[in-house]
């Protein structure tokens, strides 16, 4: 309210009755200024009645003050309209300066409408009009004219936003919103009444079932206002995963690994990109049952060879596709527009088992073509394919997964030694050497071969390792250099080296190590060479037969016997000799060893650190030489002793255990022998006993803790998922399940946080529950499947917050391992139109998903088999006997339809009748009803008539009947 006493709301209301705006702004101000000039002040400058209702009496006062310096004659005359009445006491004498004249205006409206009039103020000879305005209660509605959902993901989820309709007026206002577009937009409510000074919230729902750019318009009708347009905008994008090349950042559709040897691996990296504004959990699934997949097939062989292998298919063994392709990581979570690097490993596995020697046969070639999909975790359909009319429905939602083709070739190592795998060396003597040349031929035209010979005693190979390119050969020299006498026959192994993967749950490590072996046979003989060595004798105190270091040489026994006595005396009697004994060496410990005088210091290398040497005569400690490069340290000596003691104790424990078991066995045998009945009565043990019959339930394998589908480092495959689901769906739990976890095992299982792989194996579907066309007030039900393919319990809860699905119960299930449960949805409504709602569910109260519920609510209706019936006389009776026929009513909807036949009576009347005619009939859902039409002939009977088929709360159809005489 401003200084003049009227607010903005009055301006708008007054302008709505086509009065000039200057009447409320310019004219009152001008009148007030003119009144001041004329020496009077009018307060208020105009008289107004706000929110005046019919039948009520309203009063307002106006004061006229004399502000001039002299007295003035003031008189106020009433309005022209009878709705306004003026009450005033006009003075006969002039009004003194500073005094005022007060008048009261009464307003009593007969209808709710706006009125205006004026008061006449006479000031001496001046005439001044005072406006009188009356406004009835009115509404003033305002609303937001734009709903922008922004960028959303096309995941078949119903999203909603609310807008407000505000009524600033003093009377209730009505609104109506009409939308006739083709987009899945629902506006609730579409019409209603907004009370004064209140706000009405309008919910706009939009189903994101496909990518598009939405810019729709809805017509808005607000009371006492012009029609407006409500803009509804949304940018719906695909929730798409993309596989990109890590170098070029371009889309990648196929990964070519190329050729690789069986037993080796090849590693390539790709980038997984979440090209959507919503975070999502993803999982990698290997499609080993996809059309066009090849697992160990030579695509280059001839047709005849392929047909022959098909006939002789007994040598083909099954290969797990997940052992050929590895993916790390194979599950995870990506944020909006986030990327992650994924490592793909190709490890070809030989798929044949025919007993052929791969060293001599032609290299086997096997091609692999597999398909992998990266799928977004959520509600989905079954993993099992059901064939309908020869067509396999697609289980994959193309918007929530991306497919990647993987190709590669597996080759056998074809390294052929020439000549042959058996090598025979000539006879040679000790110290001689025999060489044989070998040629290693790499017959593979695609891959090189890296080889390494293992070390073998008495044989030398040069070069011992190397690399042979594809289609080339390498000369290798085998040498027989014996170090001892005898015949030698050894297997020389050739290690073939390559990149082998070491798979971990978080990474794939590539190591260069042997993956294949080739065995060669070496044969050689070393003969002894007789050679006589002349010994040198030293008659001193040292042994008679020595060399430079004081050690014995190769001499005959008869020669050694000549001086053996003196040697024994020098060594054995050293402790008894007192020659040259030093005074400080009073005694000689018997643990000391005696060293010869001419032994070199470097030759005294004791067997143990605890051995000590003394001279033979002076008993002085001799220097012991310990080589630090070969001797054990003190720590190593302690470790050797602890290791030796451990195994001694281990062997003793084994012996004691064995003896204890033998003792117990003897005791049991003795007890059985004591109780054994010596009299044989001729009964055979277990004679006549039949084993218990096993049922399928007894033959089921108990799930192990490490179920193959739960191994994090192993890829999920479609065949494995389908096999587990087949087992789970056969165990449908219809009763006896728990609504909440009750047992200790259930509480423990239902408190776990599932990984993306595990959550992917909990099937909750179908993702869209479509009730189709349903009638008003009808009850329809659909079932939601919950298949638990995990070896643990899962707790699934659905949250329903709409009135149409309130009859659905129960909404909570604790599903046992490897079983299936059904969650019923019951739909009932009284509102026509399309129904779409996202039902949110949780798994173990930690993982959230949604299911889309759709329905089209239509009224009940009946269909006529024909809109016109021609009645002719029956062949079995006379024409005068009557004309009869039937018309069929078809109820193709899911609710009982009540109807009534109403004849259209003209001036000539009607001569037709339909049974049932009086009262009303009813047609059951999806049933038919035949009604009999009869024409009653007479002289004045009309030969044509019409009937209206009126369905209660439904449609109306007209039937035309014609009698053909």
UniProtKB/TrEMBL annotation:
Transmembrane segments: none annotated. The keyword Cytoplasm applies. GO terms for cellular component: cilium; cytoplasm. Pfam families: HYDIN_VesB_CFA65-like_Ig, PapD-like. Keywords: Cell projection, Cilium, Cytoplasm. InterPro entries: HYDIN_VesB_CFA65-like_Ig, Ig-like_fold. The keyword Ion transport does not apply. It is found in: Cell projection, Cilium; Cytoplasm. It comes from the Eukaryota. This is Cilia- and flagella-associated protein 47-like. Residues 144-234 form the HYDIN/VesB/CFA65-like Ig-like domain.
């Amino acid at each position: 309210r401003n200084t003049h006493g009227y607010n903005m709301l009055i301006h708008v209301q007054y302008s709505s009755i086509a009065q000039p705006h200057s009447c409320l702004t310019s004219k009152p101000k001008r009148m007030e200024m003119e009144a001041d000039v004329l020496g009077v002040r009018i307060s208020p400058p105009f008289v107004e009645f706000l929110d005046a209702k019919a039948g009520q009496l309203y009063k307002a006062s106006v004061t006229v003050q004399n502000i001039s310096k002299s007295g003035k004659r003031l008189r106020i005359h009433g309005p022209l309209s009878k709705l306004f009445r003026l009450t005033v006491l006009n003075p006969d004498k002039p009004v003194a300066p500073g005094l005022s004249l007060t008048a009261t205006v009464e307003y009593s409206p007969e209808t709710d409408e706006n009125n205006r009039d004026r008061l006449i103020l006479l000031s001496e000879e001046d005439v001044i009009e005072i406006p009188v305005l009356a406004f009835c209660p009115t509404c003033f509605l305002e609303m937001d004219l734009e709903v922008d959902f922004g960028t959303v993901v096309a995941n078949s989820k119903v999203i909603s936003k609310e807008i407000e309709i505000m009524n600033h007026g003093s009377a209730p206002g009505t609104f109506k919103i009409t939308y006739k577009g083709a987009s899945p937009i629902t506006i609730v409510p579409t019409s209603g009444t907004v009370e004064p000074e209140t706000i009405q919230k309008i919910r706009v729902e939009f189903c994101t079932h496909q990518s598009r750019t939405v810019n729709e318009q809805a017509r808005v009708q607000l009371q006492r206002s012009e029609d407006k347009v409500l803009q509804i905008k949304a940018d719906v994008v695909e929730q798409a995963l993309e596989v990109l090349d890590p170098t070029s950042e371009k889309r990648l559709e196929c990964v070519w690994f190329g050729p690789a040897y069986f037993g080796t691996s090849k590693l390539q990296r790709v980038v997984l990109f979440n090209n959507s504004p919503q975070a999502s959990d993803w999982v990698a699934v290997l499609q080993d049952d996809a059309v066009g997949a090849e697992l160990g097939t030579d695509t280059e062989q001839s047709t005849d060879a392929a047909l022959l292998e098909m006939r002789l298919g007994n040598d083909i063994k099954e290969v797990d596709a997940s052992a050929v392709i590895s993916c790390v990581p194979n599950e995870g979570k990506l944020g909006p527009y986030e990327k992650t690097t994924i490592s793909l490993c190709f490890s070809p596995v030989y798929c044949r088992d025919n007993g052929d020697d791969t060293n001599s046969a032609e290299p086997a070639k096997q091609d692999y073509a597999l398909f992998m999909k990266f799928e977004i975790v959520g509600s989905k359909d079954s993993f099992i394919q059901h064939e309908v009319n020869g067509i396999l429905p697609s289980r994959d939602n193309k918007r929530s997964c991306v497919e990647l083709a993987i190709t590669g070739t597996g080759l056998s190592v074809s390294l052929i030694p020439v000549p042959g795998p058996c090598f025979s060396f000539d006879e040679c003597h000790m110290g001689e050497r025999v060489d044989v040349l070998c040629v290693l031929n790499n017959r593979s035209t695609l891959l090189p071969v890296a080889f390494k010979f293992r070390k073998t005693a008495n044989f030398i190979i040069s070069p011992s390792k190397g690399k042979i390119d594809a289609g080339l050969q390498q000369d290798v020299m085998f040498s027989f250099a014996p170090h001892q006498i005898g015949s030698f026959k050894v297997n020389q192994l050739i290690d073939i080296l390559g990149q082998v993967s070491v798979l971990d749950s978080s990474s794939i490590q590539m190591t260069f190590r042997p993956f294949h072996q080739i065995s060669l046979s070496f044969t050689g003989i070393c003969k002894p060479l007789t050679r006589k060595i002349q010994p040198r004798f030293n008659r001193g105190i040292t042994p008679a037969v020595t060399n430079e270091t004081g050690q014995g040489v190769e001499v005959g026994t008869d020669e050694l016997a000549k001086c053996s006595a003196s040697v024994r005396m020098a060594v054995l009697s050293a402790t008894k000799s007192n020659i040259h004994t030093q005074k400080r060496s009073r005694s000689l410990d018997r643990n000391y060893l005696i060293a010869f005088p001419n032994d070199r210091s470097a030759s005294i290398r004791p067997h143990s650190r605890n051995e000590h040497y003394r001279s033979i005569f002076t008993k002085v400690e001799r220097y012991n030489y310990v080589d630090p490069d070969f001797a054990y340290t003190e720590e190593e000596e302690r470790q050797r002793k602890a290791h030796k003691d451990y195994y001694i104790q281990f062997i003793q424990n084994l012996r004691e255990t064995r003896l204890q078991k033998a003792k117990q066995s003897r005791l049991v045998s003795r007890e059985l022998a004591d109780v054994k009945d010596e009299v044989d009565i001729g009964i055979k043990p277990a004679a006549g006993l039949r084993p218990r019959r096993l049922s399928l339930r007894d033959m089921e394998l108990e799930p192990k803790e490490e179920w193959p589908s739960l191994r994090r480092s192993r890829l999920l495959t479609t065949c494995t998922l389908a096999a587990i689901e087949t087992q789970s769906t056969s165990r449908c739990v219809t009763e006896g399940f728990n609504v909440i976890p009750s047992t200790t095992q259930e509480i423990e299982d239902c408190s776990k946080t599932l990984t993306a792989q595990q959550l992917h194996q909990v099937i909750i579907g179908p993702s869209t529950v479509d009730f189709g066309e349903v009638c008003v007030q009808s009850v329809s039900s659909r079932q939601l499947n919950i298949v638990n393919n995990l070896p643990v319990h899962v707790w699934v809860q659905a949250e329903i917050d709409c009135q149409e699905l309130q009859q659905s119960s129960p909404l909570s299930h604790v599903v046992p391992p490897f079983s299936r449960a059904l969650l019923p949805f019951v739909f009932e409504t009284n509102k026509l139109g399309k129904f779409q709602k996202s039902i949110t569910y949780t798994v173990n109260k930690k993982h959230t998903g949604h299911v889309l519920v759709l329905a089209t609510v239509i009224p009940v209706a009946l269909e006529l088999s024909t809109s016109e019936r021609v009645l002719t006389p029956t062949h079995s009776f006379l024409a005068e006997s009557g004309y009869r026929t039937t018309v069929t009513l078809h109820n193709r909807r899911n609710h009982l339809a009540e109807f009534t036949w109403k004849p259209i009576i003209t001036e000539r009347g009607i001569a037709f009748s339909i049974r049932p005619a009086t009262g009303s009939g009813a047609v059951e859902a999806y049933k038919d009803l035949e009604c009999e039409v009869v024409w009653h002939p007479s002289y004045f009977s009309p030969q044509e008539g019409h009937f209206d088929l009126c369905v209660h709360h439904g449609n109306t159809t007209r039937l035309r009947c014609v009698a053909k005489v």
